[in-house]
Amino acid sequence: MTQVRCLAPAKINLFLRIVGRRADGFHLLDSLMVAVELADEVAVDAAFGQTTSIAVLSDHPAAPGGPANLAYRAATRFLEATGRSARLTFRINKHIPVGSGLGGGSSDAAAALWALNTVADSPLNVEQLMAVGARLGSDVPFFVHRTGARVRGVGDVVAPVAFPRQLAVVLCSTGTFVSTRTVYSRVDLSLTSGPGPTSIHDFVAGQKPISELLVNDLEAAVAQIHPEVLSVKSTMSELGALGTLMSGSGSAVFGIWPDASSAMKAAHRLRARGLWAHATRTLDGWSETLP
Prior knowledge:
This protein is an alpha+beta fold. It folds into two domains: 159 residues, Ribosomal Protein S5, domain 2 (2-Layer Sandwich); 116 residues, GHMP kinase, C-terminal domain (Alpha-Beta Plaits, 2-Layer Sandwich), CATH 3.30.70. Strands 1, 2, 3, 4, 5, 6, 7, 8, 9, 10 and 11 form an eleven-stranded mixed beta sheet that branches. β1 and β2 form a beta hairpin. The relative contact order is 0.19. The mean pLDDT is 90.
């Protein structure tokens, strides 16, 4: 039996545009995604052999265990792709709010893929792992890639973007769970903002204000159901955010602050108002496994 532990960071979408829809109904995206230091931890005990059993244990009541967990599906897909059998037990320590648009489930799935690939002596390369991840969800290939990236298509086209500086970020959530399926069903393609900028260098290099980049075509659809998203954005702006945006399909909101100190103060003041808030920083890349 071999154990491997992986970091499963949250992510934010600095912009998220819906640029079309395929014939099968899946929406086409154009997004700039970056991970942040807030992270789940995923550990797997693995024994490869002649039989397969998979167990997923989570320490958070809102995160499903067993086959309903995306890490379980990731393990199933990995074994199918490699033709292996194994007895697997995953233990997930949750720190990322569930159903918040911060990518926790997708990140856990990507961490599960990395962990299994590690204990199996790397039968799949990164591109192959991303292809497996694309069958699980649109955010999974980004997390498999493990660097800031511009993500297109249905999440399967991932181009790395180097961020020359870390951003001080505050994540905030009212605790509202948002169904991704419901959000996308409410998107009006005639009202979306169209293709993203062809060049984002000026923004990531800090030569243009980050607030000019922050667009999320899903935000209006979520705000119709959960108007508190806009209230959180307004509160963050009052507390000094340089820009605010709902992340992904919501309902979590993030704000960008000038520095880590001001971000920590803002997070403290948000918590004093009864909100979940966490000050963190962006990650340009992260290690595959933990010691």
